[in-house]
Every structure is written in structure tokens, then in C-alpha cells.
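Question (not urgent): is this output format expected?
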Amino acid sequence: MPCHDVIIVGAGAAGLSLALAIIRGPLRGASILLIDHDAKDSDDRTFAYWEEAARPGDPQLLREWSELAVRGPGFELALALRERRYRVIRAIDFYRAALAELRACPGVELLRAEAGLVRDGGHAASVEIEGRRAEGRFVFDSRFAWRDLRVSRRRTLVRQHFLGWEVETSAPRFDPDRVVLFDFREIGAPGEFFYLLPYAADRALVEWVGLAPADAQARLRDYLARCWGVESPTLRRREGGVSPLTDHRFRRRLGQRVMAIGTRGGRIKPSSGYAFVRIREDAAAIARSLAARGHPFDVDDERLRYRFYDAVLLQIMRHRPQDLPALFEAMFAGVGGDRVLAFLDGEATFTERLELFRGLPWAPFLAGFGRLLVARAGLARRA
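Got this back:
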């Protein structure tokens, strides 16, 4: 039975990004087996992210924006981005380009099949694949299951629900130059918000985001009608799901030769729900570790202070979601879009963090910090 250098279970953003990072570096030509039950031929999601403006955009980039808006009851902020850009890629464009590049690379095998049990081993790991077994020096597993999140009094789990519609309108309704990053108007429950990516004056992706299940379709119809004057949009595409926002510590190393990646590896940012850049950077770090160390585990962990900030914000989201509009208003009004995005990325300097914290309402954070202490002591109710 042949032994692959690398087996990747799951050909989503994490699996494809890792395979690309490997073949684009000194390990090009390594034997890679990429397994997924899905053909990856549908436009099932949108990869939205921000990064430094000086960084060239991906070839599959659909749009980018240098202006964003944050709105809520009684306030509306329009912010220019000077150092960063908000960018978006269609999943189908990313899938097609990645799969084409991988198919053209010697040593890469793409297998459409259902992967089963992964077994660790001293010299190799193995994956059960519909009645047969494949071995690899290292196996990377991106399959996330909610049961993998251990219920604990010391950790917080928030389920972030979202539903998005890509719509067209009969008349121009949107400002194509400005992303609406947070819109807390017309909320049906505390913690709900909308965001809108305007592809053109008459076409946009609008998403409802909530912390609990709701009639999201009704919320979207109401939001489009009341806030944008759109009564009967043409629905071109939809996407949706539930993301785990949590301070649970995800296990990266699942064995001597098995590693978790993607959502299963904790790559979703707990305070924002964004993951694409973190997944891509993680893939690059794993590929560097494989090339330099001969194993994939030499990757940086999240900085302790940002894990703390995320944990406090999760407490606010869970217990005081009604404070979120005022909190985000204060953040963006105080230091501007670039500084807030840098903070959410974990890249703000000490001075920038101090400036941001100085303008925030302290009551929600003190309450969140107090609840975090209670949770870490094991005295909170189960999340």
C-alpha cells in the first residue's frame, strides 16, 4: 500500500489552502492525497476578509472596498480605510482555481469519496476510505463536529447563525463604494445585525447574523424593505450556516501524525467570526514547518492577550448582547476603521490598543471580565 507524504481530509477553504501552500513551496512534488465527498462545484459561500492594502489581491478577487459603514439606532458612521482593504472572493471561483492548480501538479491526487476514521501511528497515520485504507506520513483533518466542543463551565460557546441573499434590484439602491460592516438597525433580537456587500448599485450580498435561531428570511425581507427601499428583489443565490464562536481551546495536534485544521483547528476568530485570512496564514505556517522541521506542528499559537479580549467579548455577546451596538459605535468612532480591523486581527500595537480602550464604555467590559472570572473558576452555568 503506497504511503502518501500528506493526506488532507476535506477540500474546503482549509484543505485547499494547505495543499496550495505545500505545492507552492519547496515541497512541490510531494505526494498529496486530498479527499472530499463533495465535488466543490457549487457557489455555497462567500469568503469575505480584510488585509493590508499593499498586499496584492488574489487573482480570484471579486471586489474590494476602501470605505465601510457602521450603523445602529441613532448613529451612522462612514469610515475611510487607508491602510486596509475589505475584500471578497466567491467560493466557486476559489474552488475552481485551486483545484485546477492542484490537478496540474505532479504528486497530487484528488479523490471524491467519504473519508472515515483517522488512525494515528508512530511512522504513519491512516484514513479509512469507503472500505479501503490510505496511509500518509501526516494527516490533516478539517472535519468539524459540534460534539468535538467539550461542554465546560469554564468556557463559552456562542452559536452565530447567518443567512445571506445575493439580490438584484430593479433600480439602483446601494452605494457600490461602501461596505456596510455592521448594521444594528431593525434588529429583531439583541445581538442581531446585518451586513451588506454592494457588488453594484443594483446588486448586493446582504446577510442576517444572529446569536439564536430566527426567521432569517423574514428578517432579510424586512431589512431590505425598511432600510433600502427594496420590496421585491430578485434572489440570485443564498448561503447560510452556523459558526462556533468560542474560547474553548481547540486541539491542533490530534496525535503523533494527525493535525486539525480549519474550523476544527480553531481558525474562526471568536470575536468576529472571520476565518479566511487565518486559514490561509495557518496553511502557510504548516507548510513552512513541514519544509523546515519535517513536521507540521511548529505553528504560532494565538497571543494570550487576544485570547483574553476574545473571551471577554464572548461574555458580552452571551450575557449582554444589547450592549453591542454602543460598543461597536464607540470602537469605530474612537479610532477609525483601520485601527479596529487591526485590533480584530490581533495586530494592534500597545499604543493603538490603549487609544481604542480609552474611548470604550467600561461597564460592559467590567461586567464581561467579572463573568469571565466566574467562568474560569468553574462557577458559571454550562455554556
